[in-house]
Structures are given as structure tokens and as C-alpha cells.
Specification:
heterodimer, A: mainly alpha, 11 helices, 72% helix, B: mainly alpha, two-stranded antiparallel sheet, 4 strands, 67% helix, globular
Chain lengths: 290, 348
């Protein structure tokens, strides 16, 4: 029983960052109809920003997170402006392949700059975990959960309470009509991609110190993000949050009770099962963002 | 004209080991040839049915593992204290089994994944390949996991009356790969020009219209997937017996991407496209090796993929063919090697 409770606590921590990853991807997928293969690289990028700020520049750990968010935002905007804007109107396969090319080039770039040796980040949190009855959780992981929850809340408010969010939702429903109503659709696409990328970078910056940082860390993260998006339904932010926690639970239970070698297979199995039995996602409400 | 070019190309390819003595280049040509077979099989799906399968390496890897395990033998425990013991069989049987089992896997994967289209289809196919990779990594008793299957025997051709010929040298393997590649090419060409080929292209251009004229979409796609997977399995088997060591990294997504780059750059939906694209991208690392670090090579790979999609979105062969046709407009409408139908996809 205590083992199960421990799995639940781990699930909460993991699920928070998975939700962040999923929200970023579901926004891009839902609004722009782009299968963003660079999402995982942005995650890696965020983790390396954390490494640079804390380890190489020696600055404050808490400062690194906003820097990673900002850097992710800028890189995302740059990708959108240079690679996606010229291809507006081409079919989804073409943009997907361009994103794959960008992913390969950027990941190899990371490998070239920082090498293949895994890096770790020192954190200001105490080594001893917080023990609550039968379960224990490290302070770092609690901080990760809190920061992820805060970022999710900010994104939710941005989408639902601001005029930018309203324009994004309108573009999702019908970009032609939104354009006729005076929405600058090109600007919305760039903002969407930048916001989604900054969320991926934030997830990487948060999970990087928990594990280790290496150039290929984003590959699995990207697949997990796809699994979450498919679970939650296209463009569905609430679905992505719930999907993040479901995936985390499946992984925890799979690793704990089946075999730790198959932890990472859970995401793929969920993708296959959902697409075969319920292709619109578990929480079908594909008609709107929010 | 087309036949002459094809025959000249085959003669040139067949003469290579006679004048090329450099073992490193010959080795690069053999592995490139194996990947070209994989790319041709991918083109059957991507170029002629329009389905972007990014899990294609799964069938290649399954073929490699089936063939290796058939010729190495295995001894695994099954649930209920049953042991499954397999004594080594000749590699040539492994080659046949690789084709059959990869084709069978293509059938089941196709059956399940053709329920969805577009982005979802792509993601499902990637997921299948990754699940297979994780199984190969974790089922250590069967596959040795990351320790790899080693000492895989070379393919031996049975010669009735003369015993058998074991293909050990690079030259022998080169001709083996060339013959299999030719058979695959002719098979795909035959298929594409048949009634079945027209059904495939019909549903690629307009699925709703294809259904309305009586094309059984799921059946057509599944058959294409089976043949495509079987050919990829044959390529995987050749790979296993040539390299003689395989580990789960054979399923790496980057290998699928390599095949996709070969098909897209050469020209999807063109028979010669994957061959041209495959030769370029298979030999590009050889050309870049003296001047670039491996990481920089991959950056270049990604960059070239993007550049091709921006500059030559339809691929090298169809673009060249179109240019040639335009130059000789009115006289001979048929451009060499490319299919005349490939130009019809773009709306006016």
C-alpha cells in the first residue's frame, strides 16, 4: 500500500511537467495543424539553458527558469518565422518533414556544442527528502510540481482571459473567419508556436535538474508529449493536463509492477490504444481550445 | 529511351566491383544499396498511396532480427515452464522467413493503423516502431538486448550439385544486394503499373472519389503495406547477414528518417527517385567524412532535408523529368524514368 502511495506521489510530480509539455504541443498542433517534431529539442534546449545559467554563469537557480522560458519563446518564434511561415498552406506532410529536419539539425547542434556527456545541475534544495508518513518526496521535486502548476495556470489564464487568447481560440475554430474579423493570423501562429516552445523549454528546465541533461533527452519527451496530446484530444488544454497525469500514472505503475524497462513503452502503447479505439481522444471536445 | 537508360544504369552498377577496388567505398555502396531497397519499399507506401509511414524501420529491423535468430538459433523460456529451443538453420531460410514475418507484421500494423489518417497515422507508425525497439532492448533472453546478436553467419547460396556458395567477400555481397534491389525494383514497377497500382494512386489523389468508384481502400492500403514491409524485411535480412552484428539501435528513428530523406529528395512516387536519392544520401556521408565532424554531418543532413523541401518539394527525379519534358514539349511527352502520372498530384 505504501508502495502504491509512493507511486501516486511520483505520478503527481511527473504529471505536472508532462502536462506542461502536452499543453505546448496541443496548442501548436490544434491551432496551427503542425506536427511539431522540434518540441523535444526545445525541451532539451530549456534544460541546457538551466545548465548554462546555474553551472556555467553561476547565477541563481530560480533565475534560470524565467531565462529558459524566455529563450524557448525566442527560439520558437525564430523557428516559426524562418521555417513555417514560408510554408503556410503546404500540406501537413511537408511541414512535418521540415520540422523533422530542424529537429535533427538542432539536436546534432546540441551534441556538437555541449558533447554527449550527461550534465547535472546543482540545486539549492536540501538533500534529505520530505517524509510524510509512508511516502517521501524530495524538495526539488516539490518545487518542480509547484512551478509546473503555476505555469499551467498562467497558460490557462492567457488562453481564456486575454484578448490574445481569444484571438487564438478564434483562429483554432476557423482561421479564415478569424482573419476576416481582423485577427492577424500570422501573428497568432507565431505567438502560438513561441508560447508552446517556451512551455517545452520550461518543462526541460524543470526536469533537467531532477535527472541529467544530455542531447537526446528530448526524444522521449517529444513522444510523451504526443501521447498526451492524443490522449487529451487536439487543442484541448484541460485534456492535456489530465492526459499528462494519466501518462505519468501509467508509467509509474508500469515501471513499478511490470518492468522498469518498459516504463517508456507506456506512452507508445497509450498512443496506439487511444488512436485505435478512441481516435478523438478520451475527452472529445475537439471543436474548441480551452 | 527509358529502357535504354535503365539498362545502361544496370550495366554501370553491375560493373562497379570490376573497377572499384577500394573496400571502404565498396562497403559504403553495399550498405547504401541495402538502404535503397528499404527506401524503395517505403516509396511504395509514401509515394504511391500517400501514407507517410515513419515506422518503416520496424520492418527492416524485424527482418534483420528474424533472419539473425533463424540462423543463430535461440533457447527461450515461455510462460508455464515451456522452453522454446530452435537449432540454427541456414541463413537463406532466415532470409525467406524475414520476408514472410515482416510482411505478416506489415499486415497487422496496417490493419490497425489505417484506421487513422494524416498526422495520427504518422504518430501511430512511429509508436509501433518504438515499441518494437523497446521489446528488442528488453527481451534480453531472445535478442541479447544491448549486448547485440553477434557472429551472424553470411548468406550461403545452395548450388544444386556443387554444395553451396558462402558470400563472404564484399564483391559477392555487392552482387547479392544488387540482384535483390533489381528484383524489388521490378516487382514495385510491375505493381505500380498494374490495375492495383492505379487503385493506389487513385486513393492517394482523392480517397472519397476512389471509394465512390468502388476501390476497397483498406484492402488496397493493407496489400501495399504488406508488400512494402516484406521488401523492407528482405533488406533487413541482407543487412544482418552482411554487417553480421545487430543491436536494438537498428530500430533508431534516425534510420527511418534516412529512408524518408532518400525518398523525398529523389522524388516520391517516382520509381527511380529512391534509387537516385538513396545513392546521393547514402554516399554523402562518405564525401563529407574528410571535411566534417559526424555531428556537423547530421546538422548538414537536417539542413539538406529542409532545403530540398523548400527548393525541390517534388524531388530531384520528377523535377528533372519535368524540365526535360518542357524542353522537348510537344515531341515526346514521356520523360525518362519518371512516371507520367506523378505530375498530376498538384492542383492547377
Amino acid at each position: 500500500m505504501s508502495e502504491f502511495l509512493q507511486h501516486l506521489v511520483n505520478m503527481l510530480v511527473l504529471g505536472g511537467t508532462y502536462a506542461l509539455l502536452g499543453i505546448g504541443l496541443t496548442l501548436i498542433f490544434g491551432i496551427m495543424n503542425v506536427v511539431n517534431f522540434t518540441h523535444g529539442v526545445l525541451y532539451t534546449f530549456g534544460a541546457y539553458i538551466m545548465f548554462i545559467v546555474v553551472q556555467q554563469l553561476g547565477l541563481n537557480f530560480f533565475l534560470a527558469l524565467p531565462v529558459a522560458v524566455l529563450a524557448g519563446w525566442l527560439l520558437g518564434a525564430a523557428i516559426e518565422l524562418t521555417l513555417l511561415r514560408p510554408l503556410r498552406g503546404s500540406d501537413i506532410d511537408t511541414t512535418m518533414l521540415v520540422m523533422i529536419g530542424a529537429w535533427i539539425a538542432m539536436q546534432s547542434g546540441t551534441l556538437w556544442i555541449w558533447g554527449g556527456v550527461a550534465k547535472s545541475v546543482a540545486t539549492p534544495f536540501p538533500e534529505a527528502p520530505l517524509v510524510l508518513g509512508p511516502v517521501s518526496v524530495s524538495w526539488l521535486r516539490l518545487f518542480v510540481l509547484a512551478a509546473a502548476a503555476m505555469l499551467i495556470l498562467v497558460t490557462y489564464l492567457l488562453i481564456n482571459k486575454t484578448s490574445l487568447g481569444r484571438a487564438m481560440r478564434a483562429t483554432f475554430q476557423d482561421h479564415d473567419t478569424a482573419s476576416l474579423m481582423g485577427v492577424n493570423v500570422d501573428m497568432i501562429y507565431t505567438s502560438t508556436f513561441a508560447i508552446g516552445s517556451s512551455l517545452a523549454a520550461a518543462a526541460g528546465a524543470l526536469l533537467g535538474p531532477v535527472y541529467v541533461i544530455f542531447p537526446q533527452m528530448g526524444d522521449l519527451a517529444a513522444v510523451k508529449a504526443f501521447a498526451i496530446v492524443i490522449l487529451g484530444g487536439l487543442g484541448n488544454i484541460t485534456g492535456a493536463v489530465i492526459g499528462g497525469f494519466i501518462l505519468a500514472l501509467a508509467e509509474e505503475l508500469g515501471a513499478g509492477y511490470v518492468s522498469s524497462g518498459y516504463r517508456d513503452a507506456m506512452g507508445f502503447l497509450i498512443i496506439i490504444a487511444v488512436l485505435i479505439f478512441r481516435p478523438t481522444g478520451l475527452f472529445a471536445r475537439a471543436e474548441r481550445v480551452g | 529511351m527509358r529502357a535504354i537508360i535503365t539498362i545502361l544504369a544496370v550495366i554501370t552498377l553491375a560493373s562497379v566491383p570490376l573497377w572499384l577496388r577500394d573496400p571502404y567505398l565498396l562497403n559504403a555502396l553495399i550498405t547504401t544499396g541495402i538502404f535503397v531497397i528499404g527506401a524503395m519499399s517505403l516509396n511504395l507506401l509514401l509515394g504511391f498511396t500517400g501514407q507517410l509511414s515513419l515506422g518503416h524501420i520496424a520492418f527492416f529491423g524485424i527482418g534483420a532480427y528474424v533472419s539473425a535468430l533463424t540462423s543463430l538459433g535461440f533457447d527461450i523460456g515461455l510462460p508455464g515452464d515451456v522452453r522454446l529451443v530452435h537449432a540454427p538453420w541456414p541463413p537463406i531460410i532466415g532470409f525467406v522467413l524475414a520476408i514472410l514475418i515482416a510482411g505478416l507484421c506489415g499486415y497487422f500494423v496496417g490493419l490497425l493503423s489505417f484506421r487513422v489518417r494524416g498526422a495520427y497515422f504518422v504518430i501511430v507508425t512511429i509508436s509501433f516502431a518504438e515499441v518494437v525497439r523497446l521489446v528488442a532492448l528488453n527481451w534480453v533472453e531472445l535478442t541479447q538486448g544491448p549486448l547485440a546478436l553477434t557472429n551472424i553467419p553470411s548468406i550461403a547460396l545452395p548450388l544444386p550439385g556443387f554444395g553451396e556458395l558462402t558470400l563472404r567477400t564484399k564483391m559477392q555481397n555487392y552482387y547479392l544486394v544488387l540482384v535483390v534491389a533489381l528484383i524489388a525494383y521490378l516487382l514495385i514497377a510491375r505493381l505500380v503499373h498494374s490495375h492495383f497500382g492505379r487503385a493506389m494512386r487513385g486513393l492517394m489523389e482523392n480517397e472519397t472519389l476512389a471509394v465512390s468508384v468502388g476501390i476497397d481502400v483498406t484492402r488496397t492500403l493493407t496489400i501495399a503495406a504488406v508488400i512494402s514491409a516484406a521488401i523492407a524485411g528482405a533488406a533487413g535480412s541482407l543487412y544482418a547477414h552482411y554487417i553480421r552484428i545487430i543491436d536494438p539501435e537498428v530500430f533508431a528513428f534516425i534510420n527511418t528518417v534516412t529512408m524518408v530523406i532518400m525518398v523525398i529528395s529523389g522524388g516520391k512516387g517516382s520509381l527511380a527517385g529512391p534509387v537516385i536519392g538513396g545513392l546521393i544520401f547514402g554516399l554523402l556521408p562518405v564525401a563529407l567524412r574528410p571535411v566534417m565532424a559526424p555531428e556537423a554531418q547530421w546538422i548538414a543532413y537536417g539542413g539538406v532535408l529542409i532545403a530540398i523541401l523548400f527548393v525541390l518539394p517534388r524531388g530531384i527525379v520528377p523535377s528533372l523529368a519535368q524540365r526535360l519534358t518542357r524542353q522537348r514539349s510537344g515531341t515526346t511527352a514521356l520523360a525518362p524514368v519518371a512516371l507520367p502520372e506523378t505530375g498530376a498530384k498538384e492542383p492547377a
